[in-house]
Amino acid sequence: MTLFKGAKPFVKWAGGKTQLLSDIESLLPTDFCSRNITYVEPFVGGGSVLFWLLQRYPNIQHAVINDVNARLINVYRVIKAMPQKLISALHVLENEYLPMNHAERTTYFMEKRRRFNDDKLTNVE
After folding, report:
1. Which of 38, 48, 79, 100 could connect to 62 by a Cys-Cys bridge, CB 3.0–4.6 Å?
2. Which Gene Ontology BP terms does the record give (predicted)?
């Protein structure tokens, strides 16, 4: 499984498990690191457990993620399938946003939020 070293959750998520990683590790089966694993994460959220496990245990052959939030799962799909397109879109946002003054940034944010809430964004947006 290909993974960039140092990958971390890209979003803060309610119920995040970052603070529980050592407790979670203590509950893993004793032979967890010595056999081929398919890891299934039913509540991926920000992905702290997923990213931590994938970097710590190279014997994980496959990872299956799920979450009740369809928009969040779409983000993971975009990251997997179209990383360069996503990076380009983020650069556009950055280049538009950073030169703005505070009032313009507020207006810009509110417009993006309205489009998000109206479900008018493309997959990459």
Report:
1. 38
2. DNA restriction-modification system; methylation; mismatch repair
Q: What residues contact residue 36 under an 8 Å CB cut-off, 6+ apart?
A: 59, 61
pLDDT surpassing 80 at residue 32: yes
Q: Which of 45, 36, 53, 51 is nearest to 13 (CA)?
A: 45
CA distance 106 to 13: 23
* Residue matched to tokens 């990251």: 79
Classify 89 as helix, strand or coil. Answer: helix
- Tokens standing for residue 48: 């702290």
Q: Over 80: is that where the pLDDT of 6 sits? A: no
Strand 37-41 and strand 60-65: the pairing is parallel
pLDDT over 70 for what percent of the chain? 96
